[in-house]
């Protein structure tokens, strides 16, 4: 998107269920500093979930003024000993991540037909880039909790967590498709589809 | 991308390993009809591979004149009784597909946190849309082979076949990551990583 | 355009005559598979009109979910012995066309000052590209009907059929302009302006 | 296009026949004021040609610094008593025109299926807008010469003069196509194709 | 922005204080030539203000049809002997300017760390380009009034006059910030902040 | 910009002084994890300069893989008791900033004719947005050093520090222009132009 005025602060009022690409905006004369502000991103998040990580997004849903600007921010907390921000991708954004605490093993995988896997161990102060639409993850390989901040170039990047989408969609995907695609026994597929897939976002 | 001239026909000569976003182009005075042309898309493709489908892309690699134009075309052939274009997505394109022959069960899955699964059975003449970056598949549920054509709004949409990227990357992903992300036994993960992941593109 | 969410399914309700660039959208929670679907594109169209061709567009007017996605699809039927999709252009899209049946003589013409005319005879399975804004046509030079499918990179490409715009506009263009521009006798211009200009879209 | 640096001054040196979308640029440290400058746009142009108008474009070919910036400027001179900037369109730009001298009858025509013809008589100081890809003209209906300046939002808008493209392309279009499309006698078509089509650009 | 239809004529009715990126539009069937038209840009403007210049913009606020088209036009009048269009920039547009009358000393300054100052004296018929977001000015160094026209590639370029923004904002900037940033005595800063900053737009 | 492939890792080799919009890229087969990586952003920077702040950008000059992706990252260190990131703007990016340490008084100012000044005091964990092209600053009003990280949606946002551009350009701006524009005594202008303007980038 491209702003056509200084700012267009999003409103949540959808006017009888009608939407636009992005968001409706409020009168710019009524905009104030609170519209551009979000707080408490310094507070450590609870990571006691099965995946061991928590993503705190600051996108257009949190800062209404981000509407029409292609940018947002996230904080990611990782549990010690294996906290994982699992394989996922953003359909509408590239991500640049900086590690604040801990040691992360990170990767992204290129598209077909190479499926080249590019990986790196990151320590505090290290920066890494994950291109739009490519699958990537971060894995805490240290003994302490880890924290990272990241910028993404969309007001609403979207997140597609691969395992959740594949095995946890509602309604479930036809198990014959997954059996064939993932070369798994059908019993394993239906077992996986019966599980609860926690979402760290 | 946005064309800044009538056309900019791609050349493959990369001038000593140097590239640009998209492609270098040849002198427009030397462009001729062959640069804009590709043939034999009507010939049925062989689908005798483990997945039972073959994708034939006509993108900037096949028609050099597509460079700077956000469009390409694919033909997809599906084997009878279960030919599958497995769960995948295109990081740089939305797709509009029309069925020419056969009966396809198709879907796409929305991004978190809904992971809503939208599905439809398509017969010849039916048209369906798969949004940019969302995971989708087509599955031949008929007794005959199936054929579809699709337009995508990129000169080089990219294809990320989920199973291949997750289990078949080179080098392999750390199996601890996959064990945790997919809630699979580690033995199954390492077994899957040892398999050959055929690519239908 | 660029989608700022997974999808933004167009609604036709314009809320008291108010419009936006593109379309207003409905609540994404109410989206269903029918919004993404169109059928019967396999049925041959009637081409018994003066031009001998019929274009069947599947754009945002037919598939409401195409809104915000720069893509659409058309089917074109050509009568045997001279069915013509007459000289026209799309102000908002490049087109990639594949021939399914018949033999088409196709062209496009570059912009000034070259006005280079690039032409090709296409048979089933042949693919050709028509750049955004350039005038092009397809002419059935075979003895049988012809059929083509094409993808265009806009949700609403627009069609400007040159003869209709020049001689059939409402109200008519000042005939002195056309007499001078086309170097025609003024009587011929006024005669052409009095004719009925059929539209194959 | 979108600039990715302060400026990228075009060079004409194409490095052995290799091109890019837009232009190659010179070292920004070598840029100087002459790269951003063009003069003598105040000099009346000679309009003694069959069409009675002359267009003087200042695009990336004249000001090399326009490269990557979506903007250019034109001066248009019209002969008294019928000077015509004939029906044409720009495949890559919208145009905003201001009349400096004289009285112009201007129009543009919307795309199918309306082909609505919107027209206005403009006097000095009047401003009018011609949307991207739509056919438009200006016709001097006054007794004196006329002059207009216009801004277009492309570094290289392209110009497609309809009559020249249709009847003056090289090689010529198959006359059967034009006979059918324009509902003209074939003799008139071949006569028109034999003429010289002057270009006012 | 990118038009998704032939045109989308802006309306000022904001429907209960709700806005969109750009503008809401009226029913295209109700569009008429007046929507595309503005007059009297040939009339010299009064420049008897402290700065000695007047900018007359023709953007989406004046021509409602410019909505969705990235283009607008301005007329600038400069008083004799020092009329100044003071240092300013447009956050959303590149500008191409042509001098109609008078002699202007113009410049723009590149971004850090070079802050290179590119300057030129322009006479009638001279054309110059000011890149998006870079600070520039025009200064009448002749003995007569000067007039220029300019095209900008936005429907609403925005104008940020540096002195007005720095010393005339409402409420005022903390004077300690300006004292430090501009290396000025704090008394001068508070004196400047107490002045009236006239706006030539 | 918009990537047309998975990534296009910038090279600095400009091939005999020739450039493109953005950067030339190296062979994607030769890309490795180092191209996507930057380290030591956790190290506090020295802020003992006249302005009392240091900006450490991680853009395409530091991470070559950012080429074609509209994103970068900066670290900003502020000295205690008045460290100032002085009034500046980015011609090609919107910024989202998060405070890690200290207390910052921040603002941005809207474009004419309102010049509305929106301000906020930020503490650790607070997030604020600065729109593209609008002038803004951050001022450390706490007794300790402050640190912030920010994401910007450009690979090369550019920085225009207002005081440096106005008074420190090379060659200097004509002092008559600044005297008039800033309503300053000419002696003050020439004194300011003689100073050294330190750059915190």
UniProtKB/TrEMBL annotation, chains A, B, C, D, E, F:
Alphabetically ordered keywords of this record: Apoplast, Disulfide bond, Glycoprotein, Manganese, Metal-binding, Secreted, Signal
InterPro entries (UniProt xref): Cupin_1, Germin, Germin_Mn-BS, RmlC-like_jellyroll, RmlC_Cupin_sf
Localization in the cell: Secreted, Extracellular space, Apoplast
SUPFAM superfamilies listed in its UniProt record: RmlC-like cupins (SSF51182)
GO molecular function, one term: manganese ion binding
Domain Cupin type-1 as annotated: residue spans: 39-190
Disulfide bonds: 8-25
Xref: Pfam families: Cupin_1
CDD domains named among the record's database cross-references: cupin_OxOx
Binding site for Mn(2+): 88, 90, 95, 136
GO cellular component, one term: apoplast
Residues binding oxalate, per UniProt: 85, 90, 95
Family (UniProt): Belongs to the germin family.
Function: May play a role in plant defense. Probably has no oxalate oxidase activity even if the active site is conserved.
Protein's UniProt name: Germin-like protein
Species: Gossypium mustelinum
């Amino acid at each position: 998107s491209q702003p056509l005025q200084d700012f267009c602060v999003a409103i949540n009022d959808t006017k009888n269920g009608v939407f636009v690409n992005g968001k409706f905006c409020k009168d710019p004369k009524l905009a104030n500093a609170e519209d551009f502000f979000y707080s408490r991103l310094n507070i450590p998040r609870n990571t006691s979930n099965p995946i061991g990580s928590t993503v705190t997004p600051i996108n257009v849903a949190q800062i209404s003024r981000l509407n029409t600007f292609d940018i947002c921010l996230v904080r990611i907390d990782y549990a010690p000993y294996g906290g994982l921000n699992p394989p996922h991708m953003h359909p509408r954004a590239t991500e640049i991540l900086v590690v604040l605490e801990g040691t992360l093993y990170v990767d992204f995988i290129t598209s077909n037909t190479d499926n080249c896997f590019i990986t790196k161990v990151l320590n505090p102060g290290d920066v890494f880039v994950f291109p739009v639409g490519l699958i990537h993850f971060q894995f805490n390989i240290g003994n302490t909790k880890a924290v990272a901040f990241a910028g993404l170039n969309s007001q609403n990047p979207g997140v597609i967590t691969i395992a959740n989408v594949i095995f946890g969609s509602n309604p479930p995907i036809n198990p014959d498709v997954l059996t064939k695609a993932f070369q798994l026994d059908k019993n394993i597929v239906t077992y996986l589809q019966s599980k609860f897939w926690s979402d760290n976002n």
